[in-house]
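quick one, 384 residues, struct below
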Amino acid sequence: MKTPRLLTWVSLLALLGAGIAAYQTAQHFQLRSVPQSFTSFCSVNEVIDCDAVQLSHYSEVFPGVPLAGMGLGWFVALLILTIIARNPFKRKDALQFAWIMASVGSLVSIAYAAIMIGILKKHCLLCWGIDLINWSSFFMLLTLHRSHKNQAAGVGRPFLTYSSILGGCLVVMIAISWMVNSNRPSVDLVEREVQKILARTPESLDLSDGHLVIGPNNAPITIVKFSDYQCPACRMGALTLHPAMKRYEGKVRLVLKNFPLNARCNPSVNSEMHRYSCQAAKAILCAESSGRVLPVYQAFFENQATLSDESIRDLSLQNGVPSQDYDRCIKSPETESLLQKQVAMGSSLQIRSTPTFFINGYRIEGFLPSDVWNVLIEHFLNAK
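---
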């Protein structure tokens, strides 16, 4: 293959890599601020889950700076080098530097692939795409480097120039990361919020009924959530807690408790503030027998603005609850009885608003930023 054509392929790969890295960088920051959804297109199941990989400790080069962001700077620098290499007088040095970059990138990809396979046991399709780009670029640049190794070197100090290009691209990405992170709660603010929560007296909650549990029963951390599926703050609370549940999968047990703000099923409420919240609460209980609590829970919050008796049924069926089971369960006295027990528990705990959380017994009223959840969970994990 002729040099110009091969250079074009490497340039296209670098451009594609930059595009993927840019998307991953944006997703990285979105997941750590206020996620817009519970899943991305790349989160297919428990094994193929880009969000879980992005939320892991391995997704950052150092705190606040995503590996994807550094990858974006890396690919932009590689693209610039392939453009420089089109000049015959600068080709040898530019190709040599680009090949060294591709070698480093390939080693990083091997290491990250090992982390996904051996440690996280989850796969990110976009990450694998980056890996394939790195390995393909390496072999193409190796071919180009070998074919031009006898060519006369350029004048001046090209390696200093190319190092400056690479360094400049990486520094820009670090600066952008710091700028984006400046919109997140400060470390001091997070620490003050955590200390305010931990200053409270932990409360004892009876969770012996075993209903609506997400996560392992032997998890060292238990988060109990009293919520209403038509409550906007509850939706926000679900979205900001979701990244922490992904990040600490297997270490956190989430127990859902219904507390609809509707006098039809909650005697402690004086109005029918949220018209369909009682029906949604029953539907979540009905999803449990089919093992579909989590997808139905997420679907209700994703479609909160359009909840109705009909849409609640439709969403339940779309997320795996058999129609016969739903229709039988939603009218069952047992379902109504279980809902009343959860409402009574909330009343006995003097729940004043939704959402109200308890993390290992410590009360939290309202939703928390994801950063606060992370620090709280780390506190309890380190205390074990």
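The chain has a mean pLDDT of 92.
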